[in-house]
Amino acid sequence: AQTVTQSQPEMSVQEAETVTLSCTYDTSESDYYLFWYKQPPSRQMILVIRQEAYKQQNATENRFSVNFQKAAKSFSLKISDSQLGDAAMYFCAYRIYNQGGKLIFGQGTELSVKP
Amino acid sequence: DGGITQSPKYLFRKEGQNVTLSCEQNLNHDAMYWYRQDPGQGLRLIYYSQIVNDFQKGDIAEGYSVSREKKESFPLTVTSAQKNPTAFYLCASSLDREKGRELFFGEGSRLTVL
Lengths: 115, 114
What we know:
The complex is a heterodimer. By secondary structure, chain A is mainly beta.
């Protein structure tokens, strides 16, 4: 069964600094997608970044980038030049084709940004 | 603007009552999902629907029911059989179930049982 694990319940970063959120997953599939979602205090989930397993190049979206290590089944999120608006709960997720294409989520990491 | 609308945002229920949470999308998406969010547990799938008039149980369907009579609507009923219904509920949709497509989420509904 596919599982997603986020081992850091809480993280803190100073404004303008860089922080890395960890995520590991378990799967027997070879082709899959991984996602990072952000849930700000408004509670609406917003897609931050996605990565296709077949692509060796790590995905980047402005200040957000991932470190995808397929063999290690690791998918960490790096936030550069952290801003106050980055404070949120971050969820790592894996999408499967079965069960209607559901997302399997990790437990989440709450990120606080200090001014 | 296209998106997903959930209502009500906050709902209080007495024990033994059924309540229905609304989810409407105007994104023309085929797939829709209901997730439950509890602190420290991430999001867990309750029900999903890939097409109109069809829906399937997710990982924690007991005590819940859904319908999909229209493409844009996927209401969730929390029945009195749900033993611990107090939670945050999120509705999501996707164009289809292809793995690369993102899920879009509504703003959620907070249900509290008194």
